[in-house]
Amino acid sequence: EVQLVESGGGLVQPGRSLRLSCRASGFNFRDYAMSWVRQAPGKGLEWVGFIRSQAYGGTTEYAASVKGRFTISRDDSESIAYLQMNSLKSEDTAVYYCTSEYDSGGYYYNDDWGQGTLVTVSS
Amino acid sequence: DIQMTQSPSSLSASVGDRVTITCRASQSISRFLNWYQQKPGKAPELLIYAASTLRSGVPSRFSGGGSGAVFTLTISSLQPDDFASYYCQESLTSPYTFGQGTKLEIK
């Protein structure tokens, strides 16, 4: 059974940093791209970014709203994906989900999701 | 960036109704379109990928259609478990933008 478990959320002051972790199990983690999606309270889903598998260079892509402040990385030996969030703003307050990205004939989709971890940015 | 617009934003319907949600992309995305269902307090769940391919285990009352820039999600006969929020997402190019969502409520 695939499991994705996020951790690291909490209350943080504006301008500070926080690192989220996503521990994966039940699938061959190193073969899959991993994404982060967030949802502000009462709002819709916002794609944050993703990291490709090492087979595709382990490169990253980010939403404009977080580019330059957030960094996604991965540790394939531990099956963990990370979201390093710097220079946090109040508008970054959200539940953050990690999700694995699947490819079916070139069509990508997020099939497995974690339970989410809440990040609150407030003084 | 590709913009995704869903309509309606909210919808009231009854058990047994047929409902359709529309998602429009700001440019052609071929069939690179996913649909997700989200219930309050829960993570989203994939319903459909590649515009019309049903994820394994998703009831056949759900169907997806369209290509290019206009897509639909249809629920043929609403069941109590279907009252939730629905999101489309383009998967052609980064950033993989979501639509703003459609909240389906019980009439």
Model description:
The complex is a heterodimer of chains A (123) and B (107). Chain A is mainly β and 123 residues long. Helix content of chain A is 0%, strand content 55%. Chain A is built from no helices and eleven strands. In chain A, strands 2, 4, 5, 6, 9, 10 and 11 form a seven-stranded mixed sheet that branches. A four-stranded antiparallel sheet of chain A has the order 1-3-8-7, with no helix packed on it. In chain A, a hairpin with an 8-residue loop joins strand 5 and strand 6 (60-62). By secondary structure, chain B is mostly beta strands. Chain B has a six-stranded mixed sheet with strand order 2-10-9-4-5-6, with no helix packed on it. Chain B has a four-stranded antiparallel sheet with strand order 1-3-8-7, with no helix packed on it. The relative contact order of chain B is 0.34. Classes of the chains: A mainly beta (123), B mainly beta (107). At the A-B interface, strand 5 and strand 10 of A face strand 4, strand 5 and strand 9 of B.
List keywords for this structure.
A: 123 residues, mainly beta, 7-stranded mixed sheet, 4-stranded antiparallel sheet, 0% helix, B: 107 residues, 6-stranded mixed sheet, 10 strands
Oligomeric status: heterodimer
Q: Biggest interface and its residues per chain?
A: A-B, 24 and 26 residues
The unreliable regions of chain A are: none
How is the main sheet of chain A built? 7 strands, mixed
Task: Set down the secondary structure blueprint.
The complex is a heterodimer of chains A (123) and B (107).
Chain A: E1 3-7, E2 10-12, E3 18-25, E4 33-39, E5 45-51, E6 60-62, E7 70-75, E8 80-85, E9 94-104, E10 107-113, E11 117-121
Parallel strand pairs in A: 2-11
Antiparallel strand pairs in A: 1-3, 3-8, 4-5, 4-9, 5-6, 7-8, 9-10, 9-11
Chain B: E1 4-7, E2 10-13, E3 19-25, E4 33-38, E5 45-49, E6 53-54, E7 62-67, E8 70-75, E9 85-90, E10 102-106
